[in-house]
Design a protein that fits this description.
Largest sheet of chain B: 7 strands, mixed
Shape of chain B: globular
Oligomer: heterodimer
Structural class of chain A: mainly beta
Order of helices and strands of chain B: EEEEEEEEEEE
Helix content of chain B: under 10%
Mean pLDDT of chain A: 96
């Protein structure tokens, strides 16, 4: 069973860059789309974007100007960078795998989440 | 973006009660609708995809229905472990969007 684990700094200063990685174990990155989703404290879920193992990406337009998602097949990892962060970017960041069955997409494998706080 | 609206935002019910949560999409999404359960401090857990298909291992008291813009998640007999927040999500088109959540509490 595939497992995902987020890693990265838990504190980022305003205007700086948030960088997180997600390591995939128990399965290959090949063949799937990999996703970042975030959840501000006490709030709902926001889809940030996804990357195919081939490298093609799809971002939420609300974040597109600040987001980059990349994949490293050799490390079985994918990463998120978010530029020019503000307090509004404080959230638990989840990585997840987009699964596919007979034309339907869903997210059945998630990391445990990592809290990133934006503060000076 | 497709807006997903859940109701109610929260509810309190007794063990054994039948509970229904609704989710409405701002445009038709066929059956590209998933339901997740999230307990405090945990990642969301997939319950149902394609509006009505169970994920393996999900108790049979959970069921989903709907097509187009209106969907429901039903818990046929509420159990103490069902205390959680439930989210709907559309995967008809990106950006995939979630409802605001429904918090279910046990009386």
């Amino acid at each position: 069973q595939v497992q995902l684990q987020e890693s990265g700094p838990g504190l980022v200063k305003p205007s700086e860059t948030l960088s997180l990685s997600c390591t995939v174990s128990g399965g290959s990155i090949s063949g799937f789309y990999w996703t970042w989703i975030r959840q501000p404290p006490g709030a709902g879920l926001e889809w940030i974007g996804c990357i195919h193992y081939s490298g093609s990406t799809n971002y939420n337009p609300s974040l597109k100007s600040r987001v980059t998602i990349s994949v490293d097949m050799s490390k079985n990892q994918f990463s998120l960078t978010l530029n020019s962060v503000t307090a509004a970017d404080t959230a638990v960041y989840y990585c997840a795998r987009r699964d596919y069955n007979s034309g339907w997409f869903y997210f059945n494998s998630w990391g445990q989440g990592t809290l990133v706080t934006v503060s000076s | 973006d497709i807006q997903m609206t859940q109701s109610p935002s929260s509810l309190s019910a007794s063990v054994g009660d039948r509970v229904t949560i609704t989710c409405r999409a701002s445009q038709t999404i066929s059956t590209y609708l998933n339901w997740y359960q999230q307990r405090p401090g945990k990642a969301p857990k997939l319950l149902i995809y394609a509006a009505a298909t169970f994920q393996i291992g999900v108790p049979s008291r959970f069921s989903g229905s709907g097509f187009g813009t209106d969907f429901t998640l039903t818990i046929s007999s509420l159990q103490p472990e069902d205390s959680a927040t439930y989210y709907c999500q559309q995967t008809y088109t990106t950006p995939y969007t979630f409802g605001q959540g429904t918090k279910v509490q046990i009386k």
